[in-house]
Amino acid sequence: LPMAFRDVNARRHIGLQQLSSLALAGRTLLGPMKSCKFIVDESTNQSTLICSAVRLIESLDLSSAAGQLLNETIQAQNKEFKTGMSTLLFLIGAWSNAILECLQQNVPVSAIVSVMSEGLNSCCERVQCLQISIHDVNKELCSSSVRPDAFKSKTCQIGPDSLLNPQNFPYFQKDILAPEEVIPINSCSHQDDCNCNKCLVSPLAGFGSIASLVKPAGDKSTSVSSGSSVITSSCNKQKLTHSRYFSTLGKSHFSSQQGNFQGYLSGQSADACECYGLGHLAVTLSHGNQASMKLLQSIVAYQQERAEGSGSSQFNIAEIVTCCLLGLPESYSCVFPGLVTLVSPEQATVIKYFEDKPLRILLMDGDLTEQYRHLGFNRPCNVRTILEHPSLQEGRAGDLWLSSMLDILISFEVNLVLVKGNVCDNLMERCIANSILVIGSVTRDVLRAFGEVTSAQPVTYLTQVNAACVGSGAQVELWKACDGRAMDLGELVPVRIKVRGIPLLTAVLTTTVPSKMQLIEDRFWTLVYRLHHALNDEKVFLGGGAVELLCLSHIQMLAEQPLQPANKNAVKEFHNPWLAASATEYKSVVLQALASGWKQYLSVVLCNTAKAASVLEACTLVDHHLKKAADCGSPSAYILKEFRRGDLLRGGSGPFADHGDSLKVYDNVTAKTEAWRRALDLVLLVLQTDAEIITGPKRNQLLNSHVSSEFMFL
């Protein structure tokens, strides 16, 4: 009878079944070649395009307890890392199914929890050998056997005359304040040890984004396009195809007559291999996201150029903001120093009076409303202020406050106000009438950046303003597209606020497809945070499935080990010799269940990237590598060798299967391992919660609530 009860209990783990069903919707979001999904709002019939686990979870019905826990887990990963959510969601589903199978085999819950936790900890320790430091990544890129000759036929040939035309490079934008400055792309100091020269850009770039690495017509040196999908008028009409394994590194030997250029790492490191810099690290972390990679490379180059004087080359994510412009082609996406934001047409009329004029700027760290009080403000109880002599000239309540606030701005000759929070609509109207531009919903990092270069000091209330708080030197203009036209996108108008030397950069993201706007922004920030976490960790994992393959090999090796009697530590941990013996008895079964999660992960990635035509073919390929790794005697050595050759889990298909050389791909260390731990922690939490409900004091009542055929038979 107890065994029969256990069979019924296994079928009562509704929470695990719900996790499995919810996670199933995210299978196509795994890997570098994600399949996007359209999410339709039934109430409005509006649709949006998603390609991340976060957006998927936001669109699902998560009314159940398991759904709420799943949402909290995904949101926690997103809040901390902004990457790894798809892996987290998939492993939650895979391990939920694996545990349900263990329950069907009558494996005790205590054994599942103990062995799976122990197995994951062992894997995290084992894969440390596949970590590589950022310095070693640069050295590997420098000495890499990647040769772009294999892709020569797919390289666009652009002559010098085309290079001078900014129309051919929509990422390039001119900075009116400092036309002599440029953002160099993939530049490096001239070292004989490196197979690269200084990469030059047009001076019209003026802090513009990265463009394709090209060579002039007639130049016989090797050159590789950086992967822009935009076909220029002088380029061969052949669109490049990319995957995470496609090489974008190459030489650039063209010259320019436009001025002097300097690599952003010139003279910064004695190591010649440092010439690749963070821009090339961004390529290895892009996982096929070419458009975002170009923007990020441009940002990295600008930040490192600024940091040369201080000797620091650290990537600063706080100095990056985005502005989404709907209605323009994606080729218009670019990077600007300063702040690009959207304002109303009424505010845009004020800007026309400000163009090319230095403005006095005020920064407000709070809301610009009458009711706003700073955090921690103690409101006096039972105190009411009554005006004994109300002004007869004021026609409505609040006009006195509006007039006083406006008087303060006018008295200090403030032209531009950046507000962290909301702005009173009535005050906004009065400011527009007096040619004062007020922009709300500005982040604290933006305020800090403008404060550094304008000497403005943020205030909480306008009544705190004095002469020392007001900065100067800012300029405002209507944002212009790459063809020089100012854009009016309907209800909102893009404007640009700039100051000479400002560290703030705005990535302007554009598209003509409304449902794709959120997707483009998510992809950009995912890549930005990948680079951010890689620098914080100071190391990366080998990518392309190398880490998961080693985990799978390691777990299978542990599962094949002969059973050993429970040791004293295990007995002490469980406070029961039977539980310790149970964990030892079912160790192989549980470890195989844990391994199945990574095997499913690799199989789905292979299918999503078209490296395998079916799940069966993908599993066969994974088993083939596992066998070769086992025969090698050292799975980690085998995986490292195959990774360096570029043959790991590539199979015989794919657009670049014929080329032995490829650009290496890397993954974040902490984000990946935390995704594993969060996935297993959630699954085990739901498992134990379901077990408590079923085996608690009301077990019989719960089991009889829906009488099954098995229970009736008993």
Description:
α5 runs parallel beside α22. This protein has helices spanning 2-10, 14-24, 53-59, 65-80, 85-104, 109-126, 134-142, 160-163, 277-285, 290-307, 345-351, 399-411, 425-433, 444-454, 517-537, 546-560, 568-574, 577-585, 587-608, 615-632, 635-645, 669-695, 699-705, 709-713; strands spanning 37-40, 47-50, 131-133, 320-326, 334-337, 339-343, 359-364, 416-419, 437-439, 471-478, 493-498, 505-511, 539-542, 666-668. A six-stranded mixed beta sheet has the order 6-11-10-7-8-9. A three-stranded antiparallel beta sheet has the order 3-13-14. Strands 4-12-5 form a three-stranded mixed beta sheet. The longest helix is centred in the last third of the chain and has 27 residues, at 669-695. 42% of the residues lie in helices and 10% in strands. The chain is an alpha+beta fold and 714 residues long. It is built from 24 helices and 14 strands.
Put the structure in a nutshell.
InterPro entries: BBS12 (IPR042984), GroEL-like_apical_dom_sf (IPR027409), GROEL-like_equatorial_sf (IPR027413), TCP-1-like_intermed_sf (IPR027410). With about 725 residues, this protein is α+β, with helices and mostly antiparallel strands.
